[in-house]
Amino acid sequence: MTAEIAIMNKEAIALAADSAVTMGQEGEWEQKVFTSANKLFTLSKYYPVGIMVYGRASFMGVPWETIIKIYRGNLGKRKVDTLKEYADDFIAFLNNGNPLFPEEQQKEYLYGNTFSYFALIIKGEIRKKVQSIIDEEGEITDTQIKQMTSGVIKKHYDKWENAETLPSIPKTHVEDIINKYGDIINKAREEVFEELPISSVSLTQLRRIAASLFSKDIFPANISGVVIAGFGEEETFPSLKSFDIEGIVDNKLKHKEQYSAGISFKTIARIIPFAQKEMVHIFMEGVAPGLQNYIEDDLSKIFEKYPEIIVESIEKFDDKEKRALLKKLKQVSNSIFKAYRKRVTSYTKDNCVDPIMKVVAGLPKDELAMMAETLVNLTSFKRKVALGSETVAGPVDVAVISKGDGFIWIKRKHYFESELNPQFFAKYYKEEENERKEERSKR
Asked: pLDDT digits over 371-390, tens only?
C-alpha cells in the first residue's frame, strides 16, 4: 500500500508520494516492506505534466519506473493541448501491442490469474462445503460433489456474466480469449480441479469465467493505480486523471478511469488522496470514514427497531391497529434519519471542508507542497504507531507543477549521492542543452 495526494488550486498542483513498497500479500508472515520506492515521476522532460503510481510496483513483470521512463523517451518534445490527451496517449502506449509486453508474457499472465481464480473457487468454497458435509454426514458421494461443484461454479459464472464489459474492451473479447487461449485455460483448470467431477456445462462456464477475468468491470485488490496530472498546452488551470490498471491479454489492456478532476473558474481548489485515504478524510471531515459508517449503520438500526418497541408496548391496540401504527412510525422514523444525515453532511461541508478549501484556493506553490507532504506524513505516522506493517513510510517525494515553471521537484530522494554522480544530471539535461545551442546558432 501507499499514500499519495494531489492538492491543486488555480496556480498549481502539488503531488506527494511516500516511498514504501510491500513485497508479499497482505496477511502473509513473510511480508516485507521497503522504504525506497519511487512513485512520483515527470511524464515529460519539457512540459508541465507528472505521473504517480500506487498499488503494485510493477506491471506485467516490468517495473513502473522503467515503463514510465521509456514512455517519456518516446514522448520527447511532443506536446498536446489537454491533460486528457496525455492520459490517453499513455494508456495507448501500454495498450497497442507494446513490445515491453510480448505474447509469451501475456500467456503467462493469463495462466497465472486463471490458476489463482480457479484455486480461489476450489479452496475457498468447494473444499469447505465438502468438509462441511463430511462433518455432518460422515461421508460424501460423487454425485453430491458434482452437484455442489456445479452450484459453486454457476454462482461465479453468473457474477461474471452479469458484469459489464469495460468500455475499452471489445464485446467479442471473451470469445476471442477462449478461441485463442483455450488450451491454457484448460491446463489451469486441470491442474487446479484435478480429478474433481465436473459437468460439461460447468466446464464451459469455467472457460467463460477465465476469459471474463480480463474483460469485465470487476477488479481485484492487487492492481496498479496511475495518476496523471498537470497542464495541457491549451489549459490555464491544472487537472488530473487516475486509472485502475490490471493487465494485458491478447493485446487488450484491462483498465478503467477511476477519477477525473480539475480546477475551473467555479472549482477553485481540490484535495484528492489516493490509496490509503483515511487520515486525509479525518483531516478534512473531522471523523474517520469507518467510524462515520459505523455510527450511521448503528443509528439506522435504532431508528428501524424503535417503532417496533413503541408499538409492542401499546397493549390496548389490536394487531391491525399495531400494523397501521408501525407503518406510520417507520415512515416518520425514516424521514427523521434522512434529515439527520442531511444535517450532518451540511455541517461537515460548511464547518470542516469549505473553510479548508477556501484556504487551499489561495495557497502559494510552496505552501501547496508543504501541505501535500504533511498529509502524507500524517498517514505515515498513523501507520507507524498502529499495529501491522508500516505500509506508508520512508521519505516523501514532493513536486509542484505550474503553468509557467513546469514540473519542479521540492523534495526528491536518490538511491545515490548526488555529489558523486554529476554525470547522471549531465545526461538528463544534455539533450535539452544541445537543442538550446542549436536554436541559438540558428539565430
From this structure: 999 999 999 988 888 877 77
* Burial track 243-282 (b if 16+ CB lie within 10 A, e otherwise): bbbbbbbbebbbbbeeeebbbeeeebbbbbbbbbbbbbeb
Sorted by where each begins, the domain ranges of the chain are 3-101+219-282+367-441, 105-209, 285-360
H helices present in 260-387, as ranges? 278-285, 289-312, 319-348, 354-361, 365-385
The SS3 assignment for 425 reads: helix
- How far apart are alpha carbons 352 and 271 in whole angstroms? 13
| Full-model pTM | 0.87
pLDDT in tens, 25-67: 443 445 567 788 899 999 999 999 999 999 888 999 999 999 9
Q: Give the H/E segment covering residue 3.
A: strand 3-9
Cβ(297)–Cβ(27) below 8 Å: no
Q: What is the tens place of the pLDDT at every residue in 63-100?
A: 999 999 999 999 999 999 999 999 999 999 998 778 99
Among the four given CATH numbers 3.60.20.10, 3.40.800.10, 3.30.70.141, 3.50.50.60, the one describing domain 3-101+219-282+367-441 = 3.60.20.10
